[in-house]
Amino acid sequence: MTDGRVTSLAPAKPETSDSAERPQMPGLIAGREPTIVVEHVSKWYGDIVAVSDLTFGIGSGVTALLGPNGAGKSTTLKLLAGLLAPSTGKISILGQPARGKPGAYRALGLVPEQEHIYPFLTGREFVRMNAILQRLPRPDEATERALALVDMTAAADRKLGGYSKGMRQRIKVAAALVHAPAVILMDEPLNGTDPAQRAQLIRLIRELGAAGKTILVSSHVLVEVERFAENILVIVNGKLAAAGDYRAIRERIDEHDHAIRIRADEPRWLAAALISSPATRAVRIDAQGRIIAETNDVRTFYRELPRLARKAQVRLFEVQPADESLTSVFAYLVER
Amino acid sequence: MSVSTDQKFAGSMGAAGQRVAGDGPVATAPPIIEARGLTKRYGGVVALDRLDLRIPRAAIGLLGPNGAGKTTLLRLLLGLTRPTEGTASVLGFDTRSQGTKIRERVGYMPESDCLPMGTTAADFVGHMAEMSGLPARQARQRAADVLYHVGLDEERYRLIRGFSQGMKQRVKLAQAIVHDPDLVFLDEPTNGMDPQGREEMLELIIRIHRTLGIAVVVSSHILEDIERVCDYVVIIDGGRLVLSQPIGDLGPASSDLLVRVDGDVTTFVQRLTQAGLRVDTNPADATGALGEFLVYFDGDRTYDIIRDTAADLGIALRSLRTRSRSLEDLYLGNVTDGAIAEPATVIAEAGRGRA
Amino acid sequence: MVAPETPMSSPAIATAAPARHGEVYDRGYQHYDGPRLGRRHAVSALIRYSMKRALGIKKSWTSKVIPILLYLAVAIVVVIPIGIRAFLPSAGVLEYWDFFGFIFVLEGIFVATIAPEMLCGDRRENVLSLYFSRAITRFDYLLAKLGATAILTLTMSFVPAAIYWLLRQLLEDKPLSALAHNADDLGRIAVAGVLIAFYLGSIGLTISSFTGRKSIAVAIIIIGFLVSTTLAYTLAAAVEDDTLQRFFVFLSPTDVIEGFVFRLFDQPVFEDEFGEAFGLTEYVAGMLVVIAACCGIMYWRYVPND
């Protein structure tokens, strides 16, 4: 059901045709309609290549845009938002070109990274201004709804100039959501927010994703990204390095065997049962009595595990992949 | 407080102890930071409200909502502003009367940009070492060493103007430790850094604390950073102390299980429900990873039902775990309503912007 | 730049070979056990550093150009009258009070370039927050900046004037006795040089303390010197009362310095737009009041009131 693709960073590697299960477009989960389609997009600033030959699709749900500083994430977001014209290539959002057509702008909400918001406006005025710019029939209602969504109603009558960084982030999110867009782009929305505000924004992003919006969020804090996104787009040096479900991407990184940590009531029985499975390469029991199993066929292993445990009459307390976190996946991708 | 936490904590105290032995002023005073009734008002706004602190030499995480008074506290502890009421001491020196003494032995890495663009890193850090009283030659030597240790090698002879955000953060860290302080205050040290840079910065801070025995106070909004680096946490909210305690293994948050399977999740969840378990596919606290769903614990049969349902359906059981109690639980459980915290103190300080 | 006696360098050398494969950070960061010289050293370090920065040392060529041109200009003011005197002994001599009149303009431009360099960058780039977290007080910071400005300004006033004095004595028939005989002139030159340096320097710094932008500070200082004279003339002309009229001279640094220098060298000062000229004491007092007021304003700008 899920898929991940790792794009080689080496130049001009021809597409291989081994992909019965791969979707046409990197980044897209099979079966979902792409909301955002990016085809062979490059952007140069003079001689500097910001992004180079990007091709990917993004469907509904939350996708995280990751990459080192200066890799081209902000450029990508600006291209998608129609703020920049690609030097070559094509971008469409809900079937319309991203730039020049009002239709795409209507469907799009952007939470920019910049802090340039008018200090003399109140939070409510700022959100309402966006509602009016979007020509909403009932701007006041939409404003109140958006303010409530980010929990800023109480502070809505204060001037933006007096807002803390976290409040500015949330008011920008409210402004981007006021016209209930189907596509939402967020550039580092968690920056500057304190833990409670962060937890709240994470919940909001999750809920928007579950509600079928297409959301692309850039962030540097991977442990937080893990909480709202499974799908990632990784850009390294202006090129697409990986796209798809990060755990599926992990499976494609073959050089490293998968280790799985298992806690059970009878670890020795389970270990014996596991070693009989061809999917298991090695099993050992660590000092805390946990089983560390190694496999190079994760899908089979995880499917076999409950059966083998039942057969051996072993109770499973904990099953955890040892290196499947987004942090370790990202490290693999950037290291190459 | 579990045993392992105590051990971890004692370990860091021990490392610090070696340091103290050869090093005058702090040898006799175990707490590095102490405050009694510390209060700071700006006009009518109370930034800090009767704060009592007794913080041991450790890696200390300072947490609180925006505008909780963290910056005010740091400024008070550095002796840069005077308390309205109460007293505080750092490394045994009184903040009111011995501010320069404190600052001679303390390093400070501010959150904001603070580097002169038209200077080389080596020149600037060397100059800052001299500003802490080191003789010119030693200052330059220390600057070169410290810059090297924070990961700036040949770049140190280039103008800071051309540096990336991550490199600037390293220079800021270097100037904070160049005079070999006993304590460093780090305000949002990983701000603006990408995952690799953040990882390296955290490693550096851990090293500063564990290997060099320098006590650190890290103020950060990213709880993960604090969890990685710190063994003690101080939480303030609305100018008041909420919590001050060692952190370590906080134990499980609850015995409820977070489960992730590949394949037909809907049927799997249906079967669990039919077997009498309560399942939440989108838990409101959003503390698990996306894709995990919460199965409320209902005795040991919970484990068996999950195992057997997966076996019956031939579904891959990708992950099964209880969630450990995290710093976030501790934080959210103690901070009243961070979401609408009024940053009154931030405004009060910004209004005085001359500093 | 490795000093063999510095404690931290030796262990690194000792372990150089086996550390080859180690991680970079493992290669011996050491605690610092050397001397800590405290506040006084910090202040002198800040003076030295600020002087270097203001002159453009270790900076790009563009920052060095103006100071170099000004020093060249001052050198010309010294060399030309001396040259004339050497080759045309019959020609008139440039008197000290006129010499100060010549270099005053250069000094004004010099202060306008260096004073903003002293303060604006630190404020604009927020380096202040780092300075104030070190072992100095805000007062120390200002003291160092005023000191650095005054020392540099002295190199544009007292130093060239003293050289001019020396060269003039050497051109006399009996240089040695001339040196002894005219020592009181050197004393006057010292008083004039120091007082003018602090006077102009403190005005320049005070203006600079109000903005983070160097270019704005430079412009305000230069325009201020130009406009102040005109303003003082206009106000003096508008006022009927003769006693009051005299005091407007203190609005014009140019006229204050001129009056002060002439009085110092016992030259007659004629009645001008401000009416009857003041005596030496009043001019000195006026300048000291301005210096004190500037220091007060800067203190208020930099030292928190809480």
Description:
The complex is a heterotrimer of chains A (336), B (355) and C (306). With 336 residues, chain A is an alpha/beta fold. Chain A folds into 2 domains: 7-107 and 181-252, P-loop containing nucleotide triphosphate hydrolases (Rossmann fold), CATH 3.40.50.300; 257-335, Alpha-Beta Plaits. Chain A contains 11 helices and 15 strands. Chain A has helices at residues 73-80, 102-106, 123-133, 139-149, 165-177, 195-210, 222-228, 246-252, 267-275, 298-311, 326-335; strands at 4-6, 36-45, 48-58, 61-66, 88-93, 96-97, 108-111, 183-187, 214-218, 231-236, 239-245, 258-264, 280-285, 291-295, 316-321. In chain A, the strands form 3 sheets. Chain A has a 7-stranded mixed β-sheet with strand order 1-11-10-4-9-8-7, sandwiched between helices. Chain A has a 4-stranded antiparallel β-sheet with strand order 3-2-5-6, with helices on one face. In chain A, helix 3 (123-133) packs across helix 4 (139-149), helix 4 (139-149) packs across helix 5 (165-177) and helix 6 (195-210) runs parallel beside helix 7. Chain B has a 6-stranded mixed β-sheet, sandwiched between helices. In chain B, a hairpin with a 2-residue loop joins strand 4 (85-90) and strand 5 (93-94). The longest helix of chain B is centred in the first third of the chain and has 19 residues, at 3-21. By secondary structure, chain B is an alpha/beta fold. Chain C starts with 8 loop residues before the first helix and ends with a helix. Chain C is an all-alpha fold and 306 residues long. In chain C, helix 9 runs antiparallel to helix 12 (253-264). Residues 1-19 and 22-26 of chain C have low confidence and may be disordered. Classes of the chains: A alpha/beta (336), B alpha/beta (355), C mainly alpha (306).
Strand order in space, largest sheet of chain B: 6-7-8-3-9-10
Largest sheet of chain B: 6 strands, mixed
Order of helices and strands of chain A: EEEEHEEHEHHHEHEHEEHEHEEHEH
Rg of chain B, Å, rounded: 24 Å
Largest interface: A-B, 64 and 62 residues
Primary descriptors:
heterotrimer; A: about 325 residues; alpha/beta; Rossmann fold; Alpha-Beta Plaits; seven-stranded mixed sheet; four-stranded antiparallel sheet; B: about 350 residues; six-stranded mixed sheet; 12 helices; disordered N terminus
